[in-house]
Amino acid sequence: PQVVLNHLYNLTQMQSTFGVIMLALVDGVPRILTLKEMLENYIKFQCEVITRRTQFNLKKAQDRAHILEGYLIALDFIDEVIAILRASKDQSEGKQALIDRFGLTEIQADAIVKMRLGQLTGIQQDKLHAEFDELMRKIEYYNAILTDEELCKQVIKDELYEVKEKFGDERRCKIDYSASSDFNPEDFYADDEMVITISHLGYIK
User: Fold this and answer.
1) What's the pTM?
2) DSSP 164-196
3) pLDDT reading at 182 higher than 70
4) What confidence tens digit (pLDDT) does each residue in 92-111 have?
5) Residue 112 burial (CB < 10 Å; 0-12/13-18/19+)?
6) DSSP string, 55-120
């Protein structure tokens, strides 16, 4: 049976072996890496990806928080804001009046002016405060990721666990490191009777 099994291992895909050449681009240069170097470069690259992503999310959160600050100021002086907008000839004049009166930025004033008065008066102050507070927490977290390398690595770890939970399943094949020891070269020789002769000159036939 072992001879048959060895033939199956050798001549079919019942058992497969393969080599790995860990060739990768490192800073634009192709290099063959060790396993440790491969992991180190992967972590470095993931940190760069997370940094760029976090910078994008931080900018987005800061822009939204900036507009919300303007809305909250407008809510505190809602009657005066409405009066200023109604007295203005056009949006440009109203926007400049809000900037002069409340010290708003052009972006904040533009956002307030572009809202309908009904929207401005109907804004729920608690809802705005809740969104603003949530943005402040996100901004603090994003800044922490950008300044703390260990936190960046923790984000990598957490996201890898998420991938594992979503796509991971049990191994479907077996890795057997001892299988190669079962091979015996003599198993592949034909087991036939034969005659051996030795010539006068010492040659074996």
Assistant:
1) 0.69
2) HHHH----SS---TTGGGG--GGGGS-------
3) no
4) 898 999 999 999 999 999 99
5) buried
6) HHHHHHHHHHHHHHHHHHHHHHTHHHHHHHHHH-SSHHHHHHHHHHHH---HHHHHHHHTS-HHHH
